[in-house]
Design goal:
By secondary structure, this protein is of the alpha+beta class. The chain is 40% helix and 11% strand. α5 packs across α8.
Length: 231
Amino acid sequence: MRINPDTLPFFNELEKNNNREWFVANKSRWDAIRKDFEAFTAAVIESMVSLDPSIGHPQAKQCMYRIYRDLRFSPDKRPYKCHISFFLATGGRKQGGMPGYYLQIGQEDYGLHGNCALGGGIFMPSPEALAAIRQEIFYNIDEFKQIMAEPAYQRFYGNDFFTMHKLSRVPKGFPADWPDGDLLKYKDYCTMCEMPQQYLDTDELLDQVVERFRASVPLNKFIQQAMYELI
């Protein structure tokens, strides 16, 4: 299964013409891209639910993000995002502050590189959730490091997490000289990788996406356990 072949050309053009007039004139193209992406999202959900039942059986459109940017607090007044994306969250739908699986196709944005970026984990957890995750790592460090050492995990994600901010010191409440203290400094615990562009226009895309998400399932389950009382 593949995405609409006009997806990247559309976003390349939108990046240069990010205004309502151009978008309205090309709305039929966007509608076709969104329709095909919804079908693709549904196929990913069907493949992932057996690997991580916590995502449930949401409708694909409940997991997809709108193309309209939130301009309320942003100095960047471009009206449209230059990518299409979904998030399969613990509990279903696209709930923020929960572990899940994210995929973005289009222009580089939000600090993500490449025309297709995807991964798992948790982005912008609440202070309570972040504290619980750090505590789980501290008390179960061997299990956590074993998850990160798995060959599939290493192949796609390596040893770092995608995060918007990382502390310079071990957070308060933990020994400053703890050997694995660096793993407690993250404020987001996201796995993230680029999908080689060669797969975007082929029927291999679905399998390639699921393969990368599968490598992040153990991390997501670790985070779910840490957040057990908060979910």
